[in-house]
Every structure is written in structure tokens, then in C-alpha cells.
Amino acid sequence: MTATPGSGKTTFALTLAARLREARRVDRVVVVCPTDHLRTQWALAAAAAGLDLDPTLTNAVGPVRPDAAGYVTTYAQVALKPMVHRARVEARRTLVILDEVHHAGDGLSWGDAVAEAFDPARRRLSLTGTPFRTRPDERIPFVRYEEEPDGGLASVADFAYGYREALADGVVRPVVFAAYTGVSRWRNSAGEVVSASLTEESTASVEATAWRTALDPGGQWVPHVIAAMDERITHLRAAGMPDAAGLVLASDQEDARAYAAIVTRVTGTEPVLILSDDPRASDKIAAFGRSMDRIAVCVRMISEGVDVPRAACLAWLTSYRTPLFFAQAVGRVVRSRGKHEAATVFLPAVRPLLTLAAALEEERNHVIPPPAGATGEELDPLPRPERDGTEVPSWEAVDAEASFAHVLTGGRAVSGGDALLDSDDEDFLGLPGLLSAEQTAALLSRRDSEHRRRAGAGMPVDDAPAATEAEDAAAWQRAQTLRREINSLVARLSAASGAPHAVVHTRLRQAVPGPPSAAAPVDVLERRRDHLFTQL
Fold first, then answer.
1. What SS3 class is residue 497?
2. Is 382:349 a contact under the CB 8 Å cutoff?
3. Secondary element (H or E) of residue 428
């Protein structure tokens, strides 16, 4: 089964496992996953579903605890001693759940071990979020392939559940990609200062170097984007998502530590730093998921399976660009909680990432290319990775500036000049789903100068104005609540009638005279809200 990241593959698999055990179709459940962190996460989720799956069972221990429903292991453990796992599967009628089964195609030894260990299983459930391309001689075990017209092979899933279907069902959040361009300047091996925009037409090598320079912690591009993400978190928290959080994805530990310092300077709040080799990384992820911390800076720890439903923003501050990693990372911020929430991904406006963002709703199969010489076409639409020491043998970042480029949603790019806004729209940037893509782009563009100021000065935006007296604070809170209700009702009327938000607001002020909502007293706001109710 292929299902978009964030759609609930774990819940589905454990529900199926519980039902098969209740029906006495299987006696044991074995889960195979990519990492030790996910072993614990699977075990906790299984416990909530009434299944005792042991995540601590090692290869050195032969039998499974008789009082356990099964165990959770990793692909690496299976590869070390496949016959141990085969013996456990043969001892009882077993359901094997292969989580992110594409990892069984990471190498011939892993694939052979998985096939050998779990071939005798009574039932197998293979799950993946993003099947991906491997070398021609590496098939994923237990996956069915069909021949392509060009002589290659493509996987065929028994069931596919893509982002489009999950979005329609309310299983995932809608996601908007906020792309940021800017001019990067670097010094080459000849000592010359070269400058290039992230979005200008250039060679793949120049684009990659401009991208690399933009991500340098010493420039202004990274602080600018972090300021924009932090403001988005602030708006989300003020607009009905009080625990909204953001994830910053770094390429390596050195950058992650530098980015964490930038987050502290720009936002005034120290982030959670989660590094891949930290023995406490899993505990930190779990604690962050339960806390009210605003931002976590991570290295390779937020891809597959990591569950932080309150995370609604992602800053892509890395040069990673594989379809697999992109889909898995974006999947961390689109998991729905049954509420009206949206996700925002902030990323460099470079062709490889924009291509991946535009293709988010497309279903992908695991593709094995045809034999060498069968075709001259490159199957991967992205440029090949640049080799160190070719076009740019030496590089030193000088500076990078950021500026908002456009938002990308549903494969459509929308710039900041494509919509008109009134004051009410700007006040409610954080309300998920109420503003169109054009309005969101216009707001981000309008706020760009403030983000640039914060990037340079490190001055956080207050979550809310401080009230001088308790009575004023109560009145302000009441007015804020009423304005949100009005904007929500205006959005519903706009969707029903097809009239723009601004037109509905104008009609409302004609029906209930008074100042704009931002300056209107509570009694006027209450009358406007009540009038809108009569229009629905």
C-alpha cells in the first residue's frame, strides 16, 4: 500500500493487526521499520491500540515473550540475522508489517534478508509513503512490478492513497509553499566575487552554489526566512491553534547549531535542538510533540514516521532535494488533527524544490530504469547532483539577501501582486484556510520588509499588544474573538456567493455602519456578526 506521508499508515496497520488477531487469523505481529526511534513510536502506538509489541527484542534473544503480541525491529537488525526472524515467523501464524518498505531496496543484502526472513509469514502488509528509484538490480521484496513501454519496471500497489485523496477526506492539512528568492554572493577560487539570484536562469552549478550560499548561517537569507516562519507561528497561535510549532530542517550538525543561534536571536526564544547522533534525540522529539515550544531545529530526524501533529510550519534550510526526503519531511507538517488548520513550508525558490512542491499531489511509483542503452532519456526530472571540485572548485560565502518570491499551492505559483487586501484580511493572516492563495501571497509580500528588519536586528514581534488594565485586556480579547468570527463568516459567505472578501466586508459595513472592524467597538462587532448569521 502506498499512502501519502501524514495520512495515518500506522493507525491503519495497527487496526488491521488488531482485527486479524481478534478473528484468530494471526497469532503474532511483527513490525519492521527504518530506525530505532520509530521502533519506540510503533510500540507506543500499538499499546494505544491494545497490542503489546516489544521494541527492545534483540537478535541475541531467540523466542518472543509469550505474553507479547509480537515485536518491533529494524531492517538493519533483520539484515544481520534473517534466520532468527524467520524462525520466529515460522513458530506462529504471523502478520509482518513492513513500514517504509522501500528501505528493503537500499541494498541487495537488505532485500535478500527481508525476503528470506519473512517469506513464510501468513500475512504481509507492505507500507510506503514514497516509493523511489533504486539501482537496476535492486527490487523491493514482496512488491509487484509491471514492465514499462521503455523496458523498465514500475511498482504496482494494491492500494494507493495520495495527498489529493487524503486532503479531500480531511486526513491531511492543505499546504502552502512560500518560496523565497534573493541574491547570493560568493568568492570563487580565483578570488572573484560572483553574484546570482536563486530564481534567475543559470547553469545547474551556479544555481547550486547560489542555493548553498543562501543557506550559509552568516548571511541574511536564513534569518529573514526564520523571521517569516516565526510570524506565521504567532498568527496561527493567535487564530485558534495555540500550540502551533515550526520545524527547521538543517543539512548537518554545524549548520543546525548555527541556525538554532539565529532562531534565538531573531525570535527571542531558544529552540529545541535535535541532532541525529544525540542519544536523547527520540526523547527530545517526543517531548517537543507534547510541549508548547515554538521551534525545533533538526538534522535528519523529521523525515519518516516522526509524529508531531502540532507542527504546522517547516523551514527547508537544506540542500536535500530527493523526492523521497522532500515528501517525508513535508509530511511532518500536514498531519491533520481534525481541526481547520493549514501548513506552510518556507523554502528557497530554486528549480529542484519548486519541481518537488508542484508535484506533491502526483502519485509516484518505484521505478527501475531500463537496461543501459535502451533509452537516452533521463528519467529523473531533476538535475544531477553537482560534483565537488568541478565547475566551482573553491567556494566562500560572502553574503545572501532574501525576498519573498511567491506561494505555490496546488501546483500553481501566485505572486504578491495578484490580489488586493483590506485591513481585515491582513489582521487574519493566521486563520487557516480563510485567505486565498493570492491574498496569502500579498500578505507575505507586504510583510517582507518587516521580516528583513527582524533578520538584521533580531527583534521579535509581540504575540499581542499588552493591555494597561485588566478591563482593557478583556475588551480587547472580546473584540479579537468577534473579529475572528466575522472573518470566518465573511469567508463562508464569500465561498457561497463567489464575491471577494472585500466586497462582502463592504456590504457588511453598509448594513451595519461604523468604523472598520479593526477599530470598531464591541457592540458594533456583535451586530455585524449577528447580521452575517442571518445571511447564511
1. helix
2. no
3. none
Higher pLDDT pick, 135 / 76 = 76
Within a 13 Å sphere around the CA of 444, how many CA atoms are in the beta-carbon half? Answer: 35
Question: What CA–CA distance (Å, rounded) separates 421 from 440?
Answer: 10
pTM: 0.66
CATH class for domain 2-161?
alpha beta
Fold of 172-362+392-457: Rossmann fold (3.40.50)
Of 80, 126, 99, residue with least CA distance to 37? 99
H or E stretch at 457: helix 448-457
- 466-508: pLDDT as tens digits: 333 333 434 556 776 787 778 778 877 877 787 887 788 888 9
> Mean pLDDT, the chain, as a whole number?
79
pLDDT of residue 213: 93
Q: Which residues, 6 or more positions from 532, have their beta carbon under 8 angstroms from its beta carbon?
A: 486, 489, 490, 493, 508
pLDDT one-digit tens code per residue, 159-195: 888 777 877 787 788 888 899 988 899 988 888 888 8
Place of cell 509482518: 96
Domain ranges of the chain: 2-161, 172-362+392-457, 470-535
CA distance 427 to 41: 39
Same fold, 2-161 and 172-362+392-457: yes
